[in-house]
Specification:
This protein is α/β, with parallel strands linked by helices and about 500 residues long. The chain is about 35% helix and about 20% strand. It has 16 helices and 21 strands. α1 links the parallel β8 and β9. α3 packs parallel to α4, α4 crosses α7 and α7 packs parallel to α8. The protein is globular. It binds N-(aminocarbonyl)-beta-alanine (URP) and zinc ion (2 copies). N-(aminocarbonyl)-beta-alanine binds next to loops. The site of one zinc ion has 3 residues, from loops.
């Protein structure tokens, strides 16, 4: 099958050009002006529109067991079918979801998520979460890297279910580095959170606003700083998810200035959602805004947008963790029991364009980099994904910057019965989505097939891990004049070794 996208402006992360795009089967065949279409080619008219690589969302929780407390009693509302349908309607053609362990067991968790993902309608991959540390975890990490997993997620928050301690984190970092896999961290101080939650609840704030009150930015700033410093200690690249505070942006900037390799991820809700709604007297309205770290005020949001514009933050994701209002009611009388998470998989590109490109903070090429190319590069799937060029996968969107539309639960494609962007008018719309070379979204209609999605294995190593051994030497020289804790090199008077020799 051939498909020709005609008359648009092709936007890649590094340049824009007026060009047609010819697609054959699931790959891009050629890019250039006035391309000739073979007989029976389907034509997509992109005149006056942008033609961009499909979005890649590296942070979703589909069909996820994310109950709060020690048991995972609540499953997120969207499965791999409905969540990906929503993604495609919003211009995202690949996701990297979080496979969760089962009772600490990674291999079992991964098998479970592979089963869930059989419903997929588009390309997908996984990160694997690690919530404890032992020999089996370490060896499973190694095995999973041979099955296409190249990143491991560590939660500093969520005591009693997902949280890891500092020693577990250090072990996880060290093993990640050994494997060439990227460690990912949710940064909030677990102990401080429990303390603040108890105090907040005790002082009578039992509703959703208690969630916000009990999660001040200082907990996120501290978690971010700690994760970055421990990554520095191990000399491993690190990926910080859902940056929600200005302080965390500053911590990442400081780490980069130290020379650390850090990927900072913003999520659409972190700069595009209304923080005030968590105070709404209607529980159903307020509870949908409960996510962690919390959605913060305009000043934090401004700093996150500045971080994206200035290059401190490299990726825009969503953390799509959808829980219906019925799920959220589990915490009607206690905010600590409200399942954490907000929607975004369908809204990400629209909110990002409206918040960042339209006010002039970033260019269309920056937009492509933040929602697609940088994700593909970070997870070693570039240039197969994240680029419009011959040989790349035909995952492409046509974006009309002039179309105004209103976001609403009544028209979205997620199974959610609420939408945190309800009623929001945005300018700029994904009018066509092409996934695996097929038009799957056009004229506000989806044409998708359950099971069409493919697992995309992600290889370890890559640019982020190149030169780390050489960097060790400079790091040791700067930080360990007497050698590293694992390898002391100096034998000077006063050390145990030199005393023994005397
Ligand atoms: N973010 C959130 O509130 N829920 C999803 C799980 C996580 O990423 O922490
Ligand atoms: Zn998180
Ligand atoms: Zn998440």
């Amino acid at each position: 099958d051939t498909l020709l996208i005609k008359g648009g402006t092709v936007v890649n992360a590094d340049h824009q050009i007026r060009a047609d795009v010819l697609i054959k089967d699931s790959l891009i065949e050629s890019v250039g002006p006035n391309l000739k279409a073979p007989a029976r080619t389907r034509i997509v008219d992109a005149t006056g529109k942008f033609v961009m690589p499909g979005g890649i969302d590296p942070h979703t929780h589909l069909d996820a067991e994310m109950g709060w407390g020690s048991k995972a009693e609540i499953i997120s509302t969207d499965d791999f079918f409905s969540g990906q349908a929503a993604a495609l309607a919003g211009g995202t053609t690949m996701i990297i979801d979080f496979a969760l362990p089962v009772d600490g067991d990674l291999a079992t968790g991964f098998e479970r998520y592979k089963e869930k993902a059989k419903k997929s309608v588009m390309d997908y991959s996984f990160h694997m979460a690690v919530n404890t540390w032992n020999e089996k975890v370490s060896s499973d990490m190694g095995k999973l890297t041979k099955e296409g997993i190249n990143s491991f997620k560590f939660f500093l928050a969520y005591s009693g279910s997902l949280a890891v301690t500092d020693d577990q984190l250090i072990n996880g970092f060290r093993r990640s580095r050994e494997l060439g896999a990227l460690p990912i961290v949710h940064c909030e101080n677990a102990a401080a959170l429990v303390d603040a939650q108890q105090r907040t609840f005790g002082s009578g704030f039992t509703g959703p606003e208690g969630h916000f009150i009990s999660r001040p930015a200082v907990f996120e700033d501290e978690g971010t700083s700690r994760a970055l410093r421990l990554a520095q200690y191990v000399n491993v690249p690190v990926y910080i998810v859902h940056v929600m505070s200005g302080g965390a942006v500053a911590e990442i900037a400081a780490a980069k200035t130290r020379g650390q390799r850090v990927i900072g991820e913003a999520v659409a809700s972190g700069f595009g959602a209304d923080e005030g709604k968590i105070w709404d007297p209607d529980f159903k309205v307020a509870a949908q805004y409960v996510m962690s770290p919390p959605i913060r005020n305009k000043e934090h949001q401004r700093q996150i947008k500045a971080g994206l514009a200035g290059g401190v933050l490299s990726i825009i994701a969503t953390d799509h963790a959808p829980f219906n209002s019925t799920h959220k009611r589990a915490g009607l009388h206690d905010f600590r029991k409200i399942p954490n998470g907000v929607n975004g998989i369908e809204e990400r590109l629209h909110v990002a364009w409206d918040e960042l490109v339209r006010p002039g903070l970033i260019t269309p090429s920056d937009f492509v980099r933040l929602v697609s190319t940088a994700v593909a590069q970070t997870y070693n799937v570039y240039p197969r994904k994240g680029l419009i060029a011959p040989g790349s996968d035909a995952d492409i969107i046509v974006f009309d910057p002039e179309v105004e539309h209103t976001i609403s639960a009544s028209s979205h494609h997620s199974k959610m019965d609420t939408n945190i962007y309800e009623g929001r008018e945005v300018t700029g719309k994904v009018v066509v989505t092409i996934s695996q070379g097929k038009v799957v979204w056009e004229n506000d209609k989806l044409d998708i097939k359950e099971g069409a999605g493919r697992f995309i294995p992600l290889p370890v190593g890559g640019a982020l891990f190149e030169g780390l051994d050489a960097l060790d030497a400079a790091y040791v020289a700067a930080n360990y004049p007497y050698g590293t804790p694992g390898q002391p090199v100096m034998r000077t008077v006063g050390t145990t070794a030199s005393r023994d020799e005397l």
